[in-house]
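Bug report (template v2)

What were you trying to do?
Predict the complex of my protein with 5,6-dihydroxy-NADP.

What happened?
Run completed; filing so the output is reviewed.

Input:
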Amino acid sequence: MKFTWSNTTRVIFGVGEFARLGEEAAKLGKRALVVTGKTSAKKTGLVDRAVELLEKSGVEAIVFDDIEPNPRSTTVDRAAAVVKETGCDFVIGLGGGSPMDSAKAIAVVSACGGSIWDYILSKPGKKVRTVDAALPIVTVPTLAATGSEANGGAVISNWELHEKAALIHPLMYPRFSIVDPGLTVTVSPEYTGDGGIDIISHVLESYCSSTAYTPLQDRFSEGVIRTVMEHLPRAMANGNDVEARTHLSWASTVALSGMVNGGRPGGFPLHWMEHVVSAHYDISHGRGLAILMPHLMRHTAEKKPDKYVQFARNVFFADVAEQKPAVAAEAGISQFERWMKSCGVYSTLSQANISSDKFGTMADDVIRIYGYGKDYIDNARPLYRQDIEQIYRMAL
Ligand code: NZQ
Ligand code: ZN
């Protein structure tokens, strides 16, 4: 097992910790671009509170409140121009993954120039600009989902090309993140559900896609999955259940912080297939994952059942000792699928108004963008174009 793990984000966690935004931000700069979504953070009064906290600590705040879900490269470039015009010296992402990722991307373009799409490798062999600087970044998640608050990645969409891809760089780790679960109580049951599935997928992807022997990482993963499964239904039923919100926020922050997936180089096939769905249809990330997940699991388990047998045993405590691997694997997958249905998350592409029209193009896109020059994407069972198209069809 070999991997490098170097997470440089200081995480300030707990209900009420948002109040520390000003004093902590004042250590980073004098003028902040506060990057947020179009509606929620204004409606809940969070933007006003952020500005007040910053100004009390002597930090001038310029608000950019135009980030859409699945943030566009053009919006990032527009915000970077605002940084240039106003002389902001750091960037604060306040919101879900979309504003947080945008803040990171804006910090890169502001420091290195050009357009964010120049930095995102979406075509094999395409010459990209490389990140060699970024303004200091702060994130404040208002939704438990992506884990952007504790990693160095940003996922950006190019709506003209219908491509969505990630930029990952050590300079893109937030200097600090304030993870205050109290900020998530206003998230709707639907987005809470999508977020919970996203958290699970962040630890389940490489659990299933990697064939490396990683017992500790697997136990971390199983712990994150069980924590989400216990608390997600509570938070969906009662948004004000702060205890449930707290454990979802912590699971979100831990899941994609690097340690859980370290040493499992199996790829992120579910995310890659979902990113292509949302690049064409602009659906919520977690919703796309929920729809595709059981189908990818079944397709992979057909050839590589072992990890799914472990999933059945360690996550659902299923007694599978006497069962054939295929039966044992299916026991875990179907219990998981039943649990997702009981939460009410989306389960078919049709429910999201997606037809089979573009499946061929989408399968091509997955290979082109995420095959990294190969004619398949990495998975325990490598996925070729026809496998990807088949999984989309299974999910229809
Ligand atoms: O857009 P606003 O008005 O802010 O409302 C948002 C949006 O409608 C709303 N929301 C957020 N916090 C809320 C709230 N509503 C009420 N109360 C609150 N406290 O929720 C909706 C979804 O927001 P968004 O930021 O788009 O959601 P999410 O956190 O799921 O982020 C998704 C984006 O992150 C990327 C995804 O691909 C997608 O672009 N990801 C980023 C990752 C990373 N950086 O590590 C990893 C992930 O796998 C993911 O790919
Ligand atoms: Zn995700």
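What did the reviewer find?
The CA atoms of residues 107 and 135 lie 5 Å apart. The chain has 14 helices and ten strands.
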